[in-house]
Design brief:
The protein is built from eleven helices and no strands. The protein is mainly alpha-helical. About 3% of the residues have low confidence.
């Protein structure tokens, strides 16, 4: 674990050293470019921090942010990297910039290229203010996702498992030895037998007699008829007597006298004379048979 931490610390220190040397190499180019576009000595000395410093800030933001904010930080890092590369390239192509003998605002002989380079060099400080403030605000308002408990304790549990003694492992614990009385010497066998002798028997305790369950007296059910607690509604009393098949047939004939054959159905008869579905179907068949016979005689 200590070697792992030392390796990461050494890697970070090496990265800081490389970035510092690269910043020093790019210092002259960006300083001369700033002087060529009208910056004074103090502004020209601070100009490299504007470009390369924001690159370092965007790089740190990419390590902290996530999702869309991380993509934004990567775009800022890429844009300022390309801008620093272009300015360093122009510094290498124009020897007059090294001695600061170039005219102000003149970075290229071709006018459109010169205008574009001057616009790029003068817009980088304004962009650093805007993008730098936005990146710092995103980092300050960033809320990292919670780490699950199982993942958080993975390293600790791995380290604990690694530090366990070999005596704690199940493979290092010897199996219990079962003593054999025939194979052991006599004194050991006597000791073994003594240890397995049963203890003195204790006198048994007689169970307490169970208390008999006394029979409970249950009141006999009264044979006297109960009186009604209230009057039965007149609606509940059925005053209608059961009708005979002939009476049902007569009522069905009367109810369906004016019906066409298509309307003479079991459901219609049941609703008309208030009878059961079975009786209604039987009456339907009878009525339809009578109507068919009457039609045949008429022909």
């Amino acid at each position: 674990m200590n070697l792992h931490r030392k390796g990461r610390a050494a890697l970070v220190l090496a990265l800081v050293a490389v970035v510092g040397m690269a910043f020093r190499v790019s210092w002259n180019a960006l300083r001369d470019i700033a002087g060529a576009v009208g910056a004074d000595d103090t502004a020209a000395m601070l100009y490299p921090f504007v470009v390369d410093g924001l690159m370092a800030l965007a790089l740190i933001a990419t390590l902290v942010l996530a999702d869309r904010d991380r993509t934004f930080a990567l775009r800022v890092l890429g844009a300022y990297t390309v801008a620093s590369l272009i300015l360093n390239y122009v510094h290498g192509l124009v020897p007059e910039l090294h001695a600061r003998t170039v005219d102000w605002g003149r970075l290229a002989d071709w006018d459109p290229a010169n205008w574009a380079l001057v616009l790029l060099a003068t817009s980088l400080p304004v962009g650093s203010i805007y993008f730098g403030s936005d990146l710092v605000a995103k980092v300050l308002h960033h809320r990292p996702a919670p780490i699950p408990a199982a993942s958080a304790n993975t390293e600790e549990s791995t380290e604990t498992e690694r530090k366990r003694s070999t005596a704690d492992l199940p493979g290092s614990t010897p199996a219990p030895i079962t003593p054999n009385a025939a194979a052991l010497p006599r004194p050991v066998a006597v000791g073994f037998l003594k240890s397995t002798l049963p203890a003195k028997p204790y006198p048994s305790i007689a169970p307490a007699p169970a208390k008999p369950i006394e029979p409970r007296v249950v009141a006999a059910e009264s044979t006297r008829p109960r009186r009604a607690t209230g009057r039965v509604p007149a609606v509940a009393k059925s005053t209608r007597q059961k009708r005979t098949p002939d009476q049902l047939l007569a009522e069905a004939r009367t109810a369906t006298a004016g019906w066409p054959d298509a309307k003479v159905t079991g459901e219609g008869i049941r609703r008309a004379i208030r009878t059961s579905p079975a009786n209604a179907r039987s009456l339907r068949d009878t009525l339809l048979a009578e109507r068919a016979a009457a039609s045949a005689k008429a022909v």
